[in-house]
UniProtKB/TrEMBL annotation:
This is Response regulatory domain-containing protein. SUPFAM superfamilies: CheY-like (SSF52172). Residues 33-147 form the Response regulatory domain. It comes from the Bacteria. The modification 4-aspartylphosphate is found at D87. Keywords: Phosphoprotein. InterPro entries: CheY-like_superfamily (IPR011006), Sig_transdc_resp-reg_receiver (IPR001789). The lineage of its organism: Bacteria, Pseudomonadati, Pseudomonadota, Alphaproteobacteria, Acetobacterales. Transmembrane segments: none annotated. The keyword Phosphoprotein applies.
């Protein structure tokens, strides 16, 4: 029987290759500030642990759009945000207002969702989508890529 951790972050060949050290991602996330916005406590703790193991500084995790917007405003004047991981649906509320604010600030983000890659991303179709369950190595690698490529990945599609 799979553990709760294995169900949320299933083992993958990439994890076996990356192993415990995640050598390619560790250097990229050192000194990076990553906002985690997730309303499921177990999922947020797992994401926080994996990103922290990759030497990221974690902002949050926060379970609501309102709390996340408050944290973003505080972080803007206190070192900024390198990237964000956003659950699309937070207690029934779409994360779009937060995505709008992050985009306005030039903060790249990805969506982590159980709704699939075709779920409404609030006009941010260029933002990466990690479909739950996903493996931890993919989360870390995608966040590292965001911090390297910048906000263009989360730019709204034309017409937004």
């Amino acid at each position: 029987m799979l553990s709760a951790v294995d169900r949320l972050f299933p083992p993958s060949p990439a994890m076996a290759y990356l192993g415990d050290g995640l050598p390619d991602c560790r250097d990229k996330l050192a000194s990076k500030r990553v906002l985690v916005v997730e309303d499921e406590a177990l999922v947020s703790m797992l994401m926080e642990d994996e990103l922290r193991d990759a030497r990221a500084e974690i902002l949050g995790p926060v379970p609501s759009v309102e709390n996340a917007l408050q944290l973003v405003e505080a972080a803007v004047s206190d070192g900024g945000i390198s990237a964000a991981v956003l659950d699309i649906n937070l207690g029934g509320q779409h994360v779009a207002p937060l995505a709008d604010r992050l985009a306005a600030l030039g903060v790249p983000f990805l969506f982590a969702t159980g709704y699939g890659v075709n779920h409404d991303t609030g006009g941010y179709g260029r933002a990466p989508v990690l479909e739950k369950p996903f493996d931890a190595g993919r989360l870390v690698a995608t966040v590292a890529e965001l911090t390297f490529t910048g906000a263009d990945a989360a730019a709204p599609l034309p017409g937004r």
